[in-house]
Amino acid sequence: MNNGIDWLLWPSTIRDQAKRIFDSLEEGKTHFLINENKWDQTVDIVWKEMNKNYPDLKIPFHSRWRHFDIGKQRLNKVHDQSIESMLDLCFISVLLDAGAGAEWKYRYKKENIAYGRSEGLALASLEMFENGLFGAPFEVKGDVLKELTIEDLSNGLQVSEMNPLEGLEGRLELLKRLGEVLIKNKSFTNNRPSGILMSLASPIIDAPEFLHLILIELKDIWPQGDKINDQGLGDVWYYRPFGERNDIDAYIPFHKLAQWLTYSIFELLIENKYIINNISGLTGLAEYRNGGLFIDSGFLIQKPNVDINIKWKADSEIIIEWRAITLVLLDKLHESIREKIGLSKEAYPLVRTLEGGTWKAGRELANKLRNGLPPIDIIRDGTIF
Predict the structure, then answer these.
(1) In this structure, is the dihedral angle defined by the CA atoms of residues 73, 77, 83 and 84, taken in order, positive or negative?
(2) Across the strands, what pairs with 237?
(3) Greater confidence, 197 or 89?
(4) Is pTM, for the whole model, over 0.90?
(5) Which of 39, 142, 161, 236 is least buried, going by the fewest C-beta atoms within 10 A?
């Protein structure tokens, strides 16, 4: 069925394994049920959100760059430097962008306005980047990342007892591991993330192959996830109902942050005249905004015997199932939206529905129902969600 660990590093495997769990859902073997009567309502929620956010339906990619704008152009100084500076910022900012929690805020010094969640993390990463915390100003260097301290990152993110940030230590470990990889891996010339450009043999890029390259080059940075033969797998999790731990078929890959990074890089490369083929080969993002959409719309239901008061770890069966089911439902929902718009997969890939879209609709529902918190409580360490 597969060719070893490398099999887990392809988006086609993400879809195939997610579909296996979805099949188990339909057989009644997971922690969830579905209410088919709520499907049209779920699609309508997303369709209305898309029309509200993008009335002309000219929807950009769901990428990290959206979180810097918030109605204003804040990237001009970095953009004027080079594509390399933009790529360096992209890597850092994506890796810092895992759930911040409801309490944390970042006061953006240039405007003296406080922002939370993904927008706050984006602006924090921008100011740290411009101030040279990760290298020289407008650069990220492996040797500097490797020496980052918890005080450096805490100060940069304005963390305090009154302003707590979930997963601070996990974020630091992720950046320090990236520093080690930038120094060790020859694919990153000049010890910078943007050095990955030199690994591209052509300006014509196949999307799944590029993601595979990213996953191979960054395989040593992920502190979370399962291991096989002491090799870290990143956002890949053992799912007991599918077999023993020595059976690769029992592992479920998601690669959420890596795909988020890849989508963000693609937007920048397209702006710089690169051609990206088969973008639809990548998957949706298995995180709590997209997943929350399906629960909060009433389509996906936790079984009555599931304890809703538990704070679940990322390797819990229920979380693995929730994320896998989310990916299948995102594909199904995207097809419904694409039919409304009347465009092909090539003209209107999934990444646009995510932006339009499912992520924003999931956030809006969570804000109305629980002050932005996810419908299933997850232990977030700053490296996965």
Answers:
(1) negative
(2) 252
(3) 89
(4) yes
(5) 161
